[in-house]
Amino acid sequence: MSRFINEQDYFHGKADCTGVLLVNLGTPDAPDASSLRRYLHEFLSDPRVVEIPRWLWYPILNLAILPKRPAVSAQKYQQIWTEQGSPLLTISRQQQAAIQKELERRFQGPVKLELAMRYGNPSIRDSLLKLKAEGVRRLLILPLYPQYCAATTATTFDATFNELKRWRWMPELRTISHYHDHPGYIEALTQSLFEYWNQNPRGELLIMSFHGIPKRNLNLGDPYYCECQKTARLLAENLNLRSNEYRVTFQSRFGKAEWLQPYTDKTLASLAKEGIKSVDLICPGFAADCLETLEEIQVENRAIFLKAGGQAYQYVPALNTNYRHIQMLCDLIQQHTQGWAETSSDWNGQMLQKQAELTQKRAQDQGAKQ
Ligand SMILES: C=CC1=C(C)c2cc3[nH]c(cc4nc(cc5[nH]c(cc1n2)c(C)c5CCC(=O)O)C(CCC(=O)O)=C4C)c(C)c3C=C
Ligand SMILES: [Fe+2]
Ligand SMILES: [Fe+2]
User: Fold this and answer.
1) What is the pLDDT of residues 68-100, one digit of tens each?
2) Reaction catalysed (predicted)?
């Protein structure tokens, strides 16, 4: 048996097909403790996510975290779970369908799109195999994280490359590291806020809350913090906000070490105590609503703000399937597949031309014979 995945249906002359792998973080299969244990085990065993040496981390993970956290997290997931399942997966599927539709409109040649989750399902392995079955020879990896972070973007690449190591015929590869300052992304966020403010009263302050990471990672050279700050600055400029009209904060702290500051929950409590009565929250780092926005921001942090004396707390949804968001993601795909998708349509064109020439020649030959 070969250690590599072979090309079962290989035949000469097959058209090169371009594939795009959309990847988000992943979510448990069900909102119960055993599904959470499986999901958290895979997620928190990733050395890109927790950078503590393995000999020290594994006992903490297996003896302190995995016996307790799954049940606590399951309760949180139950609050946001819908009939279709986890919001992150449902929204990602809707994004996939919308992007596929737009790609079919934009590209002449075949561009195959698959969705994968870094942890859980659909797995990167299964989605890559689907692309392989479609004859994909050029692959673009698009992690759905606007800001590059080793714990999210780099681990997506690691996992994809690890799978491709098993392929006999590796596709050509391109990766998208980030789109934190892409004009289309900033514009989609801006318009989403304006549309929200057109329909709802505007708060005194806009909080832009990003998922946190350990502060140590910033000192070790992870560009995530700086990319979050740049997104925030560009968004504020586009919105014409003065510096006292918005705050940048970091949410979802995990463990006891210091994470990026200021923390979202602590900021909300102190703002309320300082007399700020109304805030609007946006989470520009999340391409799709998920536990961290729907439960942590919408439920937990709202309670913190109101308990500390705040009166109005509004969460502006993630970009999800917003028209501008889908257009921007397709623009990104188009930019990063330059020379690929055109080549395959050129290839189609050349083939059609060759076929036409052959038909013409055959007709001429037949005419000459008669
Ligand atoms: C342990 C360290 C963690 C790091 C570092 C981290 C970075 C990070 N995460 C996201 C995006 C998401 N995280 C989500 C959930 C989640 N995150 C962690 C831990 C770290 N994240 C945990 C343990 C969990 C699971 C829930 C829980 O038990 O608290 C999600 C939501 C998934 C869902 O199912 O809805 C997202 C999305 C980013 C962008 C990031 C670094 C920039
Ligand atoms: Fe996280
Ligand atoms: Fe959280």
Assistant:
1) 999 999 999 999 999 999 999 999 999 999 999
2) Fe-coproporphyrin III + 2 H(+) = coproporphyrin III + Fe(2+); heme b + 2 H(+) = protoporphyrin IX + Fe(2+)
Contact indicator for 70, 33 with CB cutoff of 8 Å: yes
Q: Are 160 and 129 in contact (CB under 8 A)?
A: no
Q: What phi, psi does 259 have (nearest 5°)? A: -110, 175
User: Where is the binding site for Fe(2+), in residues?
Assistant: 211, 292
Provide ipTM, 2 decimals.
Answer: 0.96
Domains 17-181+322-348 and 184-316 equal at CATH topology level: yes
Q: Which two tokens mark 122?
A: 């659909």
Nearest CA to ligand 1 atom 29: 73
Overall CATH class of domain 184-316: alpha beta
List, for residues 308-332, the tens digit of each pLDDT value.
999 999 999 999 999 999 999 999 9
- Structural domain boundaries of the chain? 17-181+322-348, 184-316
Q: How far apart are CA 127 and CA 287, in angstroms?
A: 20
Q: Rounded to the nearest 5°, which phi and psi values hold at 96?
A: -55, -45
- Please choose from 254, 259, 297, 301 the residue to mutate so as to test ligand 1's pocket, defined by most ligand atoms within 8 A of CB: 254
